[in-house]
Design brief:
- This is DUF4806 domain-containing protein.
- This protein is an all-alpha fold.
- It is built from nine helices and two strands.
- The chain has helices at about 1-20, 30-35, 40-50, 55-65, 70-80, 85-90, 105-120, 125-135, 135-160; strands at about 90, 100.
- Strands 1-2 form a two-stranded parallel ribbon.
- The protein starts with a helix and ends with a helix.
- The relative contact order is 0.11.
- The mean pLDDT is about 85.
Length: about 160
């Protein structure tokens, strides 16, 4: 009986110590409302929400949970969950060629910092990979449109 009581007490201590931490599922439904971002207005609104520490912690946990084999894989798996390709083709990390500049947004800084820490990578390498992802957004967008058009053609042929 004594061992059973000690076991219960240790579980209660573990539960009480976990209450202050953000778990993987805690608040993820909040991010589902906002992500992926589809417009520059949504980017600015999302960045304002990063001023809230709880929201920022949820976002960082979201990025960590996606993971990857290395920093490149982590970036390439995470960014499609944050940005649509349609928005991505209007943006660039440093704002080249008149594109919407993302470099100074808090959620991008948190993203890059999380990737760096999770994958023991350098700032330069992660920034370069993020920039490349945005550079290729137009190509991915066109490819997806082509696939969707082909699927629509097949669907309409099957109806006739």
């Amino acid at each position: 009986m004594q061992k059973y009581i000690i076991s219960i007490e240790s579980r209660l201590r573990a539960i009480s110590s976990e209450q202050g931490k953000v778990t993987a599922d805690d608040g993820m439904e909040i991010l589902d409302k906002y992500l992926p971002l589809t417009s520059t207005q949504e980017v600015e609104q999302f960045d304002k929400m990063m001023e809230n520490d709880h929201f920022k912690n949820i976002y960082v946990q979201f990025i960590k949970r996606i993971g990857g084999r290395d920093f490149k894989d982590h970036v390439n798996r995470s960014l499609p969950r944050i940005f649509t390709n349609e928005l991505g083709k209007e943006c660039s990390y440093v704002g080249l060629r008149g594109n919407y500049k993302l470099q100074n947004f808090n959620f991008i800084r948190a993203f890059i910092e999380t990737i760096m820490v999770q994958n023991s990578s350098t700032l330069h390498n992660v920034e370069k990979c993020v920039g490349e992802w945005f550079r290729l957004s137009n190509q991915r967008h066109k490819r997806m449109e082509k696939i969707q058009n082909n699927e629509l053609k097949c669907f309409t042929r099957n109806l006739n």
